[in-house]
Here is the input.
Amino acid sequence: MIPRIGDEVVISCEPESARVVEADSRQVTLEWPWGVIDDSSNFRWDGKFSLPYGDSNAEWVPYRLEPDFSELQPGDICTVSIPPTRLYVGHYEEYDSPRNLGWAPAPTAGIYVVPPENMDVEDAGCMLYLGGAEPISVEPVED
Here is the structure.
């Protein structure tokens, strides 16, 4: 399936354990459980990923944590996932060769997804990378 702008899809990602590196009132930073640092890359990814929450003005993300963000402290182990979520496609791109982002395996596609309530809000979604380290599933909505 090659998604088109405006398509409704169900996005999901199986749960994985991650260690909390940092937590404050705006975001939680995790040792990202998917992918490894690609030392041959010119991009310097440090193996961490920050998820906004609470009073953060940062971009929306579909990832969910167990336990909840508010209960996490540095050193805690949590579960990160994307529960099956209906979203709209804002953009989709395939990469002729895997995209070098500093981690391996490198993704082969990217999909920008937007929650239904924010369809008319510019930059209200999240870019997810497919075909790489994260086991993200994209299924068309069949209504």
Observations:
- The beta strands are 8-23, 27-31, 36-37, 48-52, 64-66, 77-94, 103-104, 109-114, 126-130, 136-140.
- Residues 8-140 form one domain.
- The mean pLDDT is 91.
- DSSP finds no helices and ten strands in the chain.
